[in-house]
Design a protein that fits this description.
By secondary structure, this protein is mainly alpha-helical. The protein contains 21 helices and no strands. It has a domain of about 300 residues. About 65% of the residues lie in helices and about 0% in strands. It comes from Pelagibaculum spongiae.
Length: about 475
């Protein structure tokens, strides 16, 4: 069929005309032509399908969990209480949902993935706090660096220079480590309450459910179904749970949050705080490319080959994340942002483009933030661990294993996993990309096709910059931190 010059609405066909639902969803992906930085409208440029509810629910659970984790870390670092955590999570959910999820990714640029949470930065937040850094200074620097990278197309260039073996190894490492972490967290929660048998039961039931969904080709249902099973099994076996967060609205006045005696109780940042925040901002932006790479790969693996127009644009996503970082923190939030994995991965598996699910997710985030009580369910340990396990980490692991089939790719993947284990995934990605692009490992023919800039300058620069940033904040084993030590 000739699609040139025809709009999405002209090419759309009802699902009844297709043999299977999957065929209909594939067709939708191939005919969409979303506008970048212009108004996209339901019906004219995209449609809502009931499959959009899956990534919307998954993303809402995931972001509530991650926001709660990051605000808890900030509160511990600066000696702030539970009221600060709850109100700050609500600020982040409302600001990101309305401005950047619904308006940006839903209506004005469906090629930009949602700006979510930068999970790998959460363990660093206590170090950021004691290093004399400032959340607002960190946000401004991170946003500025992100805008520079997106304007120069640096993000997409790094993604293109990451070979299949390197990407596969990175996904395997992230998936395996994340899966182990969530299983251990669930078991630790149960053991602390002397109900270890409940964790075993929750995990066993969900293993069976996930395997069954994979068998019938419905893995995109994993997060809602497995989360419900986690709640039902845990409560039925006597796990303690109570609602604590009452409905309400947060204070959205920046003056309240950045005063010296209210909100963060830090005041506005000075030059010293910007200097202390600098290496952390560089490190956060350095981590963006492998993070974005993993999310785009999921689209490429699950979408039909002709669906190029709906793949997330890495540079546009960086632009959205950069503005969201600055504006969200100016409004009082404390999130460190990145591409929204708990949305994108389920959306890709469900064969849905970004806009419809993004709008539904934004609405759900507003409901959760204002309602309060749903936040308690989302961050309850059985729901939190199972949702992240089946919705993010197991799919990452499976995708990485699927990518690594060739001997050359296996070699690069193995080195990436090895280096990531020695230091962290950013180090593993940067080092292995440099080695892979120079033909020292992996596909030597691919290396020969690259120019000097793509072989040496860009991969070498990424490795040097990220390594220096990691050394500065104490992330290299055996090397004391250069700041905050």
């Amino acid at each position: 069929m000739d699609t040139e010059g025809k709009s999405y609405s002209e090419l759309h066909r009802p699902s009844s005309e297709f043999e299977t639902r999957s065929d209909y969803l594939d067709h939708e992906l191939t005919i969409m032509k979303p506008k970048r930085w212009a108004l996209n409208l339901p019906g004219r440029d995209f449609r809502f399908e009931w499959e959009d509810l899956v990534p919307a629910i998954a993303g809402t659970i995931g972001i509530t969990v991650m926001y709660s984790a990051v605000m808890t870390s900030w509160a511990g670092g600066f000696g702030l209480g539970q009221d600060f955590i709850v109100e700050n999570v609500r600020v982040e959910m409302l600001v990101s949902a309305v401005l950047f999820v619904i308006l940006l990714s839903g209506f004005f640029n469906p090629r930009a993935n949602l700006a979510g949470n930068h999970g790998p930065m959460i363990p660093l937040i206590p170090i950021i706090a004691i290093s004399g850094a400032h959340p607002l200074a960190l946000a401004i620097l991170l946003g500025v660096f992100g805008l520079i990278l997106s304007a120069t197309k640096g993000g997409s260039r790094l993604v293109k220079l990451t070979g299949r073996g390197v990407a596969g190894g990175l996904l395997v490492y992230l998936g395996a480590m994340g899966s182990i972490s969530q299983i251990e967290s669930l078991k630790s929660w149960a053991d602390s309450l002397d109900i270890g048998h409940i964790a075993l039961a929750v995990l066993f039931v969900n293993i069976i459910a996930y395997a069954w969904l994979a068998r019938i080709g419905k893995r995109w249902l994993a997060i809602p179904l497995c989360s419900i099973l986690a709640v039902v099994v845990a409560l039925a076996m006597g796990a303690p749970f109570e609602f604590q967060t009452a409905p309400g609205l947060p204070n959205l006045n920046p003056a309240y949050w950045w005063a010296e005696d209210t909100g963060w109780k830090l005041g506005l940042p000075g030059l010293e705080q910007f200097i202390a925040s600098l290496p952390f901002a560089i490190l956060a932006v350095a981590m963006w490319s492998p993070d974005f790479l993993g999310h785009r790969i999921f689209q490429e693996m699950n979408y039909p080959a002709k669906a190029k127009n709906v793949l997330m644009d890495v540079d546009d996503t960086m632009t959205g994340c950069s503005f969201r970082q600055i504006i969200g923190t100016l409004c009082g939030g404390g999130n460190v942002t990145s591409s929204w994995g708990t949305y994108m991965i389920p959306a890709a598996i469900a064969k849905r483009p970004i806009p419809g699910g993004a709008i539904l997710l934004g609405i759900l985030c507003v409901i959760v933030a204002v309602g309060g009580y749903p936040m308690d369910i989302a961050v309850w340990r059985p729901v939190m661990s199972i949702a992240l396990l089946v919705g993010v980490f197991l799919p990452l692991l499976e995708a990485g294993m699927e990518m690594v089939r060739d001997t050359k790719d296996t070699q690069s993947a193995g080195i990436c996993i090895f280096a990531s284990t020695v230091v962290n995934p950013v180090f593993g990605w940067a080092l292995t990309m440099f080695l892979d692009n120079n033909g020292l490992i992996g596909d030597k023919e691919r290396a020969k096709s690259l120019g000097k800039i793509d072989r040496w300058v860009i991969p070498g620069g990424a490795f040097v910059v990220s390594t220096i940033a990691m050394a500065a904040v104490g992330m290299l084993p055996g090397i004391p931190a250069m700041i905050g030590g």
